[in-house]
Amino acid sequence: MGMNVAQKVISAHLVEGRMVPGEQIGLRIDQTLTQDSTGTMAYLQLEAMGVDQVKTKRSVAYIDHNMLQQGFENADDHKYIQTVASKHGIYFSKPGNGICHQVHLERFGVPGQTLLGSDSHTTTGGGIGMLAMGAGGLDVAVAMGGGTYYINMPKIVKVELQGKLQPFVSAKDVILEVLRRLSVKGGVGRIVEYTGEGVKTLTVPDRATITNMGTELGATTSIFPTDEMTKTFLEAQGRGDVYVELQPDADATYDEEITIDLEALEPLAALPHSPDNVKKVKEAEGIKVDQVAIGSCTNSSYLDMMRVARILKGRTVPAEVSLVIAPGSKQVLTMLAENGALADMIDAGARILESGCGPCIGMGQAPATGAISLRTINRNFKGRCGTASAGVYIVSPETAAVSALEGKLTDPRTYADRVDLSVQLPEKFFVHDNMLIPPSENPETVEVIKGPNIKDFPVNEALGETVEGKVLIKVEDNITTDHIMPSNASLLPFRSNIPHLSNFCLTPCDPDFPARAKANGGGFIVGGDNYGQGSSREHAALVPLYLGIKAVLAKSFARIHKANLINSGILPLVFENPEDYDALTLMEDLIIENAIQQVKSGRVAVKDAKSGQEMAFRIELTDKELQVLLAGGKINFIRQAQ
Ligand code: F3S
């Protein structure tokens, strides 16, 4: 039977399992990327695993998120990442070289290869025909060490693109249309594969805008086939040699299908506060705009910037609007500077920010209180851009630029008679990789520099025969990872400093918990239903590990947090009888005897050490999770496997 593009790339990298939707598969990873806010932890994990040189074909460490260096913390992180990359065979992209996904597409992406990145928008690589997925830092570290990456085989959704976009309608409107139809949950457990005649009309940067925001669909990833357009892009980057053609077989089948007529698409906007709250710009037109931000990994390519410059050329941003533009990479910024487009932007009254994430996460331009901000970014959840009261609209660069000039949300097609937007890809991109530092040729001579903000990563011990300790905290239902490990702006610079973060663990529930845990040398957490819901934050398991937590006894666990606890070697035990929760008291001494045997059996008896009274718990693990837990976490498991 014929295969689609996603199946072709998966089957070429399949280490374990069958390509049956829902079944677990193991994939070989060719490339990895990290950014600075997740990278420090990933490299501390890589070091803890004892990996000398990375086993991937290419790994790159980018600095693009935390570029404001008000104190030593970010600078320490950057120094650490640069030196650890140099020592272990990893390229280092200096601050200012650009946003990880934009630079990776330009300089490293290879069609048909797998890419795992510690950033959810790693899916951008699908625009060049990579199977590119976002993951936690530990998974990325494991992949760098040559380990397999496990996912459940997704369903493949075919999005058939017909026709050609009208002028002033762009790739951003395509993905907004997909979001409008499928919603932010529509891609869960799925890979979105684009096909059809319309694909040929989209350049690689256009395709990358679409695959970037596949993340907002909740999709595992999105992928385009490769063709002449891909080849032309790679040749213009001086990398034509890595091109391979990837097309679905004529008899390829898909699990689901939708069709989009590009010709019929109109400029769209995602209204506050969700990327799938999509309306035609025409329907929301006229809303007064306070601020416009153009850039981010979704829309900061050379083509995006050139179209914006054409719209702004010879015009002026009105007094009441603040416009910021952050070109996506040094390559893009240099080309704009050389061809005069940058001068057009500056002259129109735009503020130019360095090439990085910047305003996407509120750095360099957060909206004013209650302001309306138009942005070319990918998500507009409340507070995402730094101001919870702001209304953020997600739009295309064309809509953003025209609306900035008009001071109100405006359909960009109103400029169709005034501006020629037929910008072409350059025959040659400007290539000067002096901000991309290759790894050292003499890694043994490289000293990894760890400033005071870089602290070693906590590693557990193999599960012992007896697990004992006190109940150190008892919390209610629906405790989130934000309760377990708060992540406010003042704590953000300490992502690589677990000892510091430990002083804040579960403090929204009980301010004395960290001190109690330290005084008692660790012990147990008791939780209610849905313990650990919220984000995939690994720190919510690493920090309890640092505090000596051996098991969490809960009525139920959020899926990802349970996986993170297992990766840290902490037992996630579920009450057999939820009413037993009421009987447990703070500082009660608990003991699990014969722990290894009990965990293997899936049934664990926890005893009150004084009265000997038992409570029954379940522990539900896959074979692999059991091995990880017995080894004392994933790092130990990998060390053993090496
Ligand atoms: Fe950066 Fe925003 Fe993309 S933080 S990686 S530009 S989603």
Commentary on this structure:
- The chain is an alpha/beta fold and 642 residues long.
- The chain folds into three domains: 260 residues, Aconitase, domain 3, CATH 3.30.499; 148 residues, Aconitase, domain 3; 175 residues, Aconitase, domain 4.
- The chain is built from 22 helices and 27 strands.
- The strands form six sheets. The protein has a seven-stranded mixed beta barrel, surrounded by four helices.
- The longest helix is centred in the first third of the chain and has 17 residues.
- The model has no long low-confidence stretch (mean pLDDT 95).
- The structure holds FE3-S4 cluster.
- FE3-S4 cluster binds next to helix 4.
- Its cofactor is [4Fe-4S] cluster.
- One of its GO terms (biological process) is tricarboxylic acid cycle.
- InterPro entries: Acnase/IPM_dHydase_lsu_aba_1/3, Acoase/IPM_deHydtase_lsu_aba, Aconitase/3IPM_dehydase_swvl, Aconitase/IPM_isomerase, Aconitase_4Fe-4S_BS, Aconitase_4Fe-4S_dom, Aconitase_put, AconitaseA/IPMdHydase_ssu_swvl.
- Keywords: Iron, Iron-sulfur, Lyase, Metal-binding.
- One of its GO terms (molecular function) is aconitate hydratase activity.
